[in-house]
Write a structure and sequence with these properties.
Shape of chain B: globular
Radius of gyration of chain B: 23 Å
Strand order of the largest sheet of chain B: 1-2
Largest sheet of chain A: 7 strands, antiparallel
Structural class of chain A: alpha+beta
Helix content of chain B: 55-70%
Number of strands of chain A: 13
Helix content of chain A: 25-40%
Oligomer: heterodimer
Order of helices and strands of chain B: HHHHHHHHHHHHHHHEEHHHH
Number of helices of chain B: 19
Largest interface: A-B, 67 and 73 residues
Structural class of chain B: mainly alpha
Chain lengths: 231, 475
């Protein structure tokens, strides 16, 4: 390997290592949102004492539902969220998750899958022994109602419904389809695939730039008369 | 084109386009207001800020509402952008009938100088027949040119500092343009995009002026670029100090004969600096517009107190001592929360972030570059290069003093903290210079290989940043 080729070899090795690391990260399983109520997680909309529940619906998703995400925090100490999803008066899926006092989102995996298009109501009950603050905003969708212990509220809790876990690579098409909306007319899903390919071209361009710069420096070094330190 | 530059510009172009098109509409700091300013100039042929008019036009308001931009600002997880094709089609059908001329009222950006918005209007007008989203993304894509100029500015700056060493120029240009916050901000509708370019080019020209004894074209160009920066954002008044210093240093470095010739150059440089600024100030006064942004105070406001200001600066960079009155509102140490976290990468409305541990790594990288570069610089400082080092240090210091002064004034005015990490981006090329300088101190045999590793690291960071944005809004 000549001196001029060393940077190219190191660059290729670094790129391969980076691709492996990125692929490992991309293969981690994550859930895609199949529905979002789009109520901002901005304020506490209900404090659920142990045993109390808040329900929200009707909502439906365009893809099968496997998990429910809500926003909030346990007050003082950890508690348990019991999530029940009902349709036509009967519970069709349920799940539980432990929540801490750290404010944020909580994902509850459901036992049972809900098929796409089905009208459902999501109930969140405090199954632990500490209060739970449920977070949301004033109502953003008049067709959806939040009820606390059966009583309708003018507020709504933030709610997202999630699909089954998939890796980042298999989420790309959905992400690109969503990204291509609210864009100039010439932008489509193809644009994002082209941009992804463009990132690979960018890597090649950087490699070419490195090789060209190293060669130029080497030529300059070779033609420069020997002199003292330039510092 | 010099070896390596074409490849760098090609890579920056592709990465810039990805950013411009991936970030959802108006999900960048104050982009709603900046687009409103752009539209006011293009559609109303008037500055925004007129009382009685809407903050933004009906067209922009409806577009914002359709995609859920303002509702989702700060809450991307619970309020992602609309994914409904029906809503988009309904907006597109209504768009031709919506007014673009009823905006132009006071908004967060309306007191800014106009240069960036005039630049943005070129792209706005290029898609004037389309809808609001077409015009927004036209301006964003137009910002990729600014990103390219930042890369070129970093390249030129390193060339002036280190001589024509292409590897070091490549690294400096790449660091300046490919840090995720630079790409994100440069491809947003935001005057900071132009600030980054103009400060980078001013630093390049400033080094030329210092090194080459204030030759006339350099001095005039430095004055004009500094004036352009001031006409872009008032923060750039801070650049006037190092620019004047560069002219003085350049004049001083010459032989007595050169000094006589340089006197005219320095004078012309100062004229090139002063005339556009004074012209803008005159226009602003004539139009009853604020010539510089001011921080209004509320009833809790207190007077500027030098001791308290020093206490504020201490608390920004070091843990608060028990006897100091608290003067910050960030949970952690501000240097970390603001300069490191937000400087490396917090996207959207500062609400799309990497996992917490990633910032610890990025903070360690910052320290591993800046601290040894500073020590090594002190070691190699000599009569030939002290003026260049002093000029560049003064550029960074002037920006920091200006920003901290504004932040402190905002705090004592009861307005809360003002600083954001992106405000450091005008001197991002200095970080590139630090990286290049460290590489220059390595044995020659390793330099190219380390440059390659730096480039790959930047690209990996880009992919992780774009992936973070994609997950935040679209999955």
């Amino acid at each position: 390997v000549t001196r001029a080729r060393i940077p190219a070899v190191v660059f290729v090795v670094a790129v391969v290592a980076a691709v492996v690391v990125l692929l490992v990260l991309a293969l981690g399983a994550e859930r895609t949102q199949v529905f979002a109520l789009r109520a901002p997680s901005a304020q506490s909309v209900a404090t659920l004492a142990p045993g109390r529940q808040a329900c929200e619906g009707p909502v439906s998703a365009a893809a099968p539902i496997h998990a429910v995400r809500t926003w909030g925090a346990a007050i003082v100490r950890t508690t348990v969220l019991d999530v029940r999803v009902s349709s036509g008066g009967s519970v069709v899926a349920a799940g539980s998750s432990r929540v801490t006092g750290k404010p944020g989102s909580h994902t509850t995996v459901l036992h049972g899958t809900i098929r796409d298009g089905r009208k459902i109501t999501v109930c969140v009950a405090n199954g632990g022994d500490a209060d739970y603050s449920l977070v949301g905003s004033p109502s953003v969708d008049p067709t959806v109602a939040m009820r606390i212990d059966g009583k309708r509220s003018a507020l709504q809790f933030s709610l997202a419904l999630l699909g089954s876990p998939t890796n980042t690579l298999s989420q790309l098409h959905t992400a690109f389809r969503r990204a291509s909306l609210f864009r100039p007319s010439w932008v489509g899903v193809w644009t994002y695939w082209a941009l992804l390919a463009g990132l690979f071209v960018a890597v090649a361009a950087c490699g070419a730039a490195l090789t060209a710069a190293a060669r130029t420096d080497e030529r300059t070094e070779a033609t420069r008369p020997t002199s003292g330190n330039e510092d | 084109m010099p070896g390596g530059l074409a490849g760098l510009l090609a890579a920056v172009l592709l990465v810039g386009l990805a950013w411009a098109l991936l970030v959802p509409p108006w999900q960048s700091p104050d982009e709603v207001a900046h687009f409103g300013y752009t539209e006011s100039l293009a559609a109303r042929h008037a500055f925004p800020g007129k009382k009685g008019l809407g903050e933004i036009s009906t067209d922009q308001l409806q577009a914002d509402s359709a995609v859920g931009a303002s509702r989702g600002a700060f809450y991307p997880a619970s309020v992602p952008p609309s994914w409904s094709p029906q809503v988009f089609r309904a907006f597109a059908a209504a768009s031709p009938h919506l007014s673009r001329t009823d905006g132009g009222g006071p908004n967060a950006a309306s007191t800014n100088p106009p240069l960036y918005y005039l630049y943005a209007d070129i792209a706005y007008l290029a898609d004037v027949g389309g809808n609001a989203f077409g015009r927004l993304y036209a301006v964003r894509i137009w910002g990729v040119l600014l990103l390219e100029l930042t890369a070129l500015g970093g390249w030129l700056l390193a060339g002036e500092v280190f001589g024509r060493k292409r590897l070091l120029q490549l690294v400096c240009g790449a660091v300046a343009a490919l840090l995720p916050m630079t790409t994100f901000i440069s491809t947003s509708v935001n005057p900071d995009a132009m600030m980054i370019v103009l400060w980078t080019w001013a630093m390049w020209l400033g080094v030329r002026v210092v090194r080459r004894s204030a030759q006339r074209p350099d001095a005039i160009a430095l004055g004009l670029v500094t004036a352009a920066a001031v006409l872009t954002k008032a923060t750039s008044y801070a650049l006037v100090v190092p620019t004047v210093a560069a002219l003085v240093l350049g004049w001083r470095r010459g032989t007595p004969e050169q000094r006589r010739a340089a006197r005219t150059s320095v004078g012309l440089g100062l004229v090139a600096l002063a005339v556009p600024i004074l012209a803008w100030l005159g226009i602003a006064v004539a139009l009853h517009r604020p010539a510089v942004n001011t921080i209004s105070s509320n009833s809790k406001a207190t007077a500027f107190n030098p001791t308290q200001f020093l206490s504020y600066v201490w608390q920004f960079y070091l843990p608060r001592l028990s006897f100091l009155t608290p003067l910050r509102e960030t949970a952690g140490l501000p240097i970390y929360d603001v300069w490191i976290r937000q400087g490396w990468g917090t996207f959207g409305w500062l609400d799309v972030t990497f996992p917490g541990h990633a910032y610890a790594v990025l903070g360690a990288i910052s320290a591993a570059v800046i601290v040894p570069a500073t020590f090594l610089l002190a070691k190699v400082m000599n009569r030939r290069n002290w003026a260049v080092a002093a000029y560049l240090a003064l550029s960074a210091l002037a920006l920091l003093v200006f920003l901290h002064g504004a932040d402190y004034r905002s705090l004592i005015a009861g307005k809360g903290p003002l600083l954001q990490g992106r405000y450091l981006l005008p001197v991002v090329a200095l970080f590139g210079l630090c990286v290049a300088f460290l590489i220059s101190r390595l044995p020659v045999a390793y330099q190219a290989a380390i440059c390659g590793v730096v480039l790959v690291a930047l690209l990996v960071l880009q992919v992780l940043s774009l992936s973070t944005v994609m997950h935040a809004y679209y999955t």
